[in-house]
From TrEMBL:
Signal peptide: none annotated. A motif ('HIGH' region) lies at residues 9-19. This is Glutamate--tRNA ligase. The gene is gltX. InterPro entries: aa-tRNA-synth_I_cd-bd, aa-tRNA-synth_I_codon-bd_sub2, aa-tRNA-synth_I_CS, aa_tRNA-synth_I_cd-bd_sf, Glu-tRNA-ligase_bac/mito, Glu/Gln-tRNA-synth, Glu/Gln-tRNA-synth_Ib_cat-dom, GluQ/Sye. It comes from Flavobacterium cheniae. A motif ('KMSKS' region) lies at residues 258-262. ATP binds at residue 261. Its EC number is 6.1.1.17. Residues 3-340 form the Glutamyl/glutaminyl-tRNA synthetase class Ib catalytic domain. Monomer. Its main location: cytoplasm. Keywords: Aminoacyl-tRNA synthetase, ATP-binding, Cytoplasm, Ligase, Nucleotide-binding, Protein biosynthesis. GO terms for biological process: glutamyl-tRNA aminoacylation.
Amino acid sequence: MSVRVRFAPSPTGPLHIGGVRTALFNYLFAKKHGGTFYLRIEDTDQTRFVPGAEAYIFEALEWLGIAPEETVGKNEKFGPYRQSERKAMYQQYADQLINSGWAYYAFDTAESLDAMRKEAEANGKTFIYNHSVREQLDNSLTVSREKVAERIANGEHYVIRFKTPVNEILELKDIIRGDIKFDTNLLDDKVLFKSDGMPTYHLANIVDDHLMETSHVIRGEEWLPSMPLHVLLYKAFGWNAPEFAHLPLILKPIGNGKLSKRDGDKMGFPVFPLEWKTEEGTSSGYRENGFFPEAVINFLALLGWNDGTEKEIFSLEELVEKFDLNRIHKAGAKFDPEKNKWFNHQYLQKQSDASLAESFKTILDKKGISTSLDLTKIVGMIKERAHFVNEFWDLADYFFEAPTSYDEKAAKNWKEETPGLMQQVISELNKIEDFKSVNIETLLKEWMTTNEIGMGKVMQPLRLSLVGALKGPHLFDIIEMIGKAETVKRIEKAIASL
Ligand code: GLU
């Protein structure tokens, strides 16, 4: 059987990073086995529909380089790929289950169910619509066939519920979790279909996974409790079930529980691939925060998986080659925002200086700074200190603008003899014809040695004069870059103001 896997998001908002990891693992598994990765939009719950969410999902996967091969508007071999457009088809499957005795009509109103729920609660119990009560409730198990037909014909609201078998221990197999047993007596009779003609998630999901020839269901752990129902549904239809793999949760950086949007807001890191704007506010995205898609892919791949070695940096191609569902951990994976930044730093170093210079140029343009300096060279000098391109300005502003203030702590090293020394530096610099870093370094060092001047006495104040603080790359490279005239001007200004 060929591998066909799917990502099946519900368009209820921006795609959480956990959803992106699910998509990624499906993608990797498909590519690894020469199979197909498709995407199905699960939008049967119209009350939770959010405009823009679907487009967001496609854009995010596209940006990350893991777009599906089949989906809405793309190779619709098993289409439509949007469940709302498959609506007409589900009824027959619900009917099939009714006819085979695997499902039944239930007319209980929301109010009566609510009353029973409250009554149970008052007695310290939980109300479950299942084998223990279904023979006493308002459904086709207790009402005659004729009466049921009549009530439906009269337009009474109903749902179709799954008739969960009694007294069975299901022995299920999950690729990640191994063998799992479920007692069917503990399951409720889930709603599969509603009289508005819409299937629920469970029915639509199983029917579509079957019709779209899904070989493996790889999804988040939160769906594990649905697995027994899903396996029973396959059995009820007489279909072969796909294999299942439930991915471990992504956990908060600190404390317990699932990573949430609030953790991101609190600690200042994104949990969404792209920015998402609503009337309530904006949720930040990896893309807008300056993450490289390759870095995002890399750190997500390592949330719950590794290749068995210490290796951390993987290209998408390497991930495809190494990926193995059997190497996914059962335990939840802690989300580490610092590590994410570290990955981005690594990928930033891999970019060519020329392409980084282009991104930097865009930032400078926005600031209204035009320059004739060699940006490629500047980027090469500062990038090892950066996690993001958007840090370049803070790391390199002094190349373009003379300091307007001086770091107070560093200024304490500006001693009485410093102005005199700086004057001498100026005269030394003026001697240099070929104003290159090595020449400047050789000359100034010679001058210091000959005159027995301590390095620190010159180098620190000089850096302070040019940069405004004791930061930045090799000082002589900075001097070469800004040029003789600008260097002299800055030293004179420092002498005047410090
Ligand atoms: N529509 C479900 C979701 O939003 C899909 C779950 C599954 O993969 O079966 O996650």
